[in-house]
Write a structure and sequence with these properties.
By secondary structure, this protein is an alpha+beta fold. The protein has one domain: Nucleotidyltransferase, domain 5. Helices cover about 40% and strands about 20% of the residues. The protein contains six helices and five strands. Strand 4, helix 2 and strand 5 form a beta-alpha-beta unit. The radius of gyration is 16 Å and the shape is globular.
């Protein structure tokens, strides 16, 4: 768990499939950047496209996605000098990961984060993800 101005925080990095069902996840401290965990989450998963928001816009991640043979659908950040094109129609499917998080938040223990240790919270997230997969 990471310490921030609001207290102890955690961040859940979630990989979902085309149906919006969880595939794998990682839990980090709240102050960790999103793109640092995306590379580890993708691992050797196969996909035709990887859809993510602007928080995941990094050249290293885009190169890794292309190395896996997938199409990166990540809108570029505003401050980039060379704006990279992306498929805006395909990007509209990103709401599936948001819907996955909304389904996970229906588990009270997940939404309120009663767990005080990272290990217990990881077990809660794993149980909720397994329940959704069933």
């Amino acid at each position: 768990m990471g310490r921030s101005v609001g207290g102890l925080t955690t961040k859940i990095h979630l990989l979902s499939d085309e149906l919006g069902l969880p595939v794998s996840f990682r839990i980090t401290a709240g102050q960790r950047h999103d793109s640092t965990e995306a590379a580890a989450l993708l691992g050797q998963h196969r996909a035709q496209a990887v859809i993510a928001d602007k928080g995941y816009d990094s050249q290293a991640l885009v190169e890794q996605i292309e190395g896996l043979g997938a199409k990166p659908v990540i809108p570029p950040r505003r401050y980039r000098l060379c704006l990279r094109p992306y498929d805006a129609e395909l990007y509209k499917l990103r709401n599936r990961i948001e819907r996955c998080f909304n389904r996970l938040k229906q588990f009270r223990r997940f939404a309120t984060r009663y767990c005080k240790s990272a290990l217990a919270f990881r077990a809660t997230v794993a149980l909720a993800c397994a329940w959704l997969r069933l």
